[in-house]
Protein 1
Amino acid sequence: MSCKFRLLLENAEQMLIVCRKEEEFLLRDGMQQLAVLEKASLVVGNDGFIKAVGPADLIRNQFSNESFETKIDCMGKCVFPGFVDAHTHPVWAGDRVNEFAMKLAGATYMDIHQAGGGINYTVEHTTAASDEELFRSFKQRLTRMLRAGTTLVECKSGYGLKLDTELKMLRVIERAQKELDIGISSTYCGAHSVPKGKSAVEAADDIICNHLPALKQLALNGEIHVDNIDVFCERGVFDLESTKRILQAGKAIGLHLNFHGDELSPMNSAEMGALLGAHAVSHLEEVSDEGITAMAKAKCSAVLLPTTAYILSKDMLDAGVIVSLGSDFNPNAYCLSMPMVMHLACVNMKMSLSEALAAATINAAYSLGRSHTHGSLEVGKQGDVVVINASRWEHLIYQFGGHQELIEYVIIKGKIA
Ligand code: NIG
Ligand code: FE
């Protein structure tokens, strides 16, 4: 006989609900006072969505006659919503371990980029790689992310630049969405670098006239479905005007705007993102005060990336910006673990433990337009859950590395992944 419910997690020492009352995101005060239940249980239905969450006694009484496909005793353990990684570049061939040494010896990101390394190097190798090769390494990376508790991840293209390789990357992402359990929000990032021999204006024209119409057609055919559009808005890459044209054209075919801005130089990207209704702007190391205010007003999330940059989150949090976190996994920032990202956010960006957790769950889900289904443990949301073997939740961030030992279960739609 089939069971009525898919999963029961019983008696957790602490259950990190994160936020209540269908909040779409948390601002500073909410991030500092997360909803946490002591001695709590959670039920996921056969449809993969959360049916009940609350004090263990109450759930026991309510469900005493019900059957569950899986029951996990969480005595001595803590339960979290699956982590959401708001920014990654995970499809590529050819690592850049040598650049790590160059940077330690004093080279800047732009020095390496302009000498033909950086993104251009990865573009060459990704262009030469087969679909199968790309899929294999991508799958391994996603598996490692999942083991570290990520259940929803934003994945960008952007190491093709030319249409055929961009589409190859997006197909690889599409295949992973079909074959793997981990949730994916896919991003077309064809404007990640200006191809050799072209100006930013010419590259933007090509994207607007050729790439985006092709994406629109492939979506209509049901072949490739893309959620977001990204541009590297940076001095010497895509200027503000070209970025704006590309983003507007992306918006016109239904993509969410989610782009790299104000990273290495102040570009007024945040102001523009707010004006265009962007879901999120990433990096923001060089954001202006006006940009911060504009983002707060427009409810545009700031995706901070502690593996790449060390900026302080305080100004943004104080100004009422929806702060999220991402690993920025890419050949220049080799980190697949959101618990490590949260740790770095605390130590280097001066976030509190609870701010970091909110930024890596509900707010990251918001930045991807998914906070109605992800990012907190509430009835009606997807049953994506992480169980750790510690009786205080802060161990998740306090322990740096070694998460294979700490994370006991990663669960997607109520099934152990
Ligand atoms: O977010 N800034 C641009 N994009 C990436 C780096 C990509 C790369 O270097 O391959 C980032 O850090
Ligand atoms: Fe990035």
Note: The CA atoms of residues 18 and 35 lie 5 Å apart.
Protein 2
Amino acid sequence: FWQNVKMGPADPILGVNEAFKKDTHDKKVLVGVGAFRDDNGKPLVLTAVRKAEELILKQNLDKEYLPIIGLDSFNKAAIRFAYGSQSAPILENRIAITQSLSGTGSLRIGAAFIERFMPKGTKVYVPKPTWGNHLSVFSDARVETCEYRYFDPKTNGLNIVGLLEDLNNAPNGSVVLLHGCAHNPTGVDPTQDQWAQILQVVKNKNLLPFFDVAYQGFASGDPVRDAYSLRLFTDAGLQVMLAQSFAKNMGLYGERIGSFSIVCATPEEKDCVLSQIKILVRPLYSSPPLNGARIAEKVLNDPELNKLWLVELKAMADRIINMRQLLRSYLENDFKSTHDWSHITNQIGMFCFTGLSPAQVDRLKDEFHIYLTRNGRISVAGVNTKNAKYIAEAFHQVTK
Ligand code: PMP
């Protein structure tokens, strides 16, 4: 049956992991994959999550199927967390939401919804560059993507002029994918002023904003601050789509817990949209997993656990911010690098776009056993007080 099936290419991010595992050097460093690590380089399970699990265990709950759209108490808490409990779309009961399989699954439902209900040929504008999987999610759902300028390699910052120009030139009614905070892979976010300019174009061109919010609270340590862009748009009365993930901010990576939501014009419209979301989800996976929803629901809804979580969330964000400072300081103060490394601390979130070329990335791997993707992106979560100096020295050596 399958003799014509050819070997496919390895996933560029997961491929870095594989190469790292095979390396036996004692100083090897993995700054590839985007998952939080503590200062000892170990995965972290939050105490708030452990406590939620204990509470759930004590309740001796059954394992029945969830409804198609998931756990109601999770969904309600998830939209309050993203849009704000006092936001107009929540108070006016016009958000269609379904629990889904983390951020990726949510994006995929959004893509399927676009494919089914937007005019044929509608394009999704994605930032250049964007998280690689965005392109596959949309193309596998038969939705065409198109890039808008985002990163400026000259400044290692945002190309706001190019961005606005490209959105202005997009056909009216296109979809625009926006990273709500902590842009992956560049770590470059628009300022509040720049978000206001983006909002203006989106409004003028009647674009549909599709927010991907995979790092709320994980970027700055403050979930309200990290929801700024999303809330700016919804407060301005725009109807948005949202793919939300609790993988990073709760450390629930493998639990696959997130949500997909659409802000509608009226509660009646919301009912119709939700009915169609159910029709989309049922043949895809029937209903979502139970465990992650129970955990996230407890962490969001139990006042004590919520308080504890927010402290732990800030600690994760602070560790990343501190490692950015440490890396930059070693480069500038210890190794006297003459390059401008200010972007390391100007960027935010798990990822830093170092500006290193593919050839320099190869040297890092071959000479220093440091593993990252060839676009020069490092996951700052892989940096710690023990390896920061070694990484900085290697960066200095390959950029001299
Ligand atoms: N969007 C972006 C921008 C991401 O960086 C990620 C995680 N790498 C996701 C979505 C989805 O992650 P998950 O499916 O694990 O929630």
Note: The longest helix spans residues 303-334.
